[in-house]
Design goal:
- The protein contains three helices and four strands.
- The chain has helices at about 1-10, 50-55, 70-85; strands at about 15-20, 30, 40-45, 60-65.
- A four-stranded parallel β-sheet has the order 2-4-1-3.
- The longest helix is centred in the last third of the chain and has 16 residues, at about 70-85.
- The N and C termini lie far apart (about 35 Å).
């Protein structure tokens, strides 16, 4: 685990946060979480949890509020989709059928 963290954080990491996706009592509900601009998301194994060591190293722990268990692939997809929505990286849906207007410009970072 230490080798993985060293590999992830070698170089300039002053602004990079570690976000664990884990179901704990202290985890922040994903819809209420403001994603950092620079971060690494850590998800546990398919039938397990993030180790206590990893949880302690995380700057934030978030949970996906569901009434049922989801697999790690779906947890990752939901987390990244939530991040995408929060950061506003997509144009508004077009009124007509088809894709967005070709003149769309991605919003500047806040």
């Amino acid at each position: 685990i230490n080798k993985i963290l060293f590999y992830l954080f070698q170089g300039n990491t002053k602004n990079c946060k570690l976000v664990g996706v884990e179901l704990t009592d202290n985890s922040i509900n994903l819809p209420s979480f403001r994603h950092p601009m620079n971060c690494v998301y850590m998800l546990g194994p398919e039938k397990g949890s993030l180790s206590n060591e990893i949880q302690q190293r995380c700057d934030y722990l978030v949970k996906i509020p569901t009434k049922f268990c989801i697999n790690v692939g779906l947890a990752c997809a939901l987390t990244l989709y939530d991040r995408s929505i929060m950061l506003g990286g997509h144009p508004e849906r077009p009124v007509k059928i088809g894709g967005p207007n070709e003149n769309w410009v991605k919003p500047q970072k806040r």
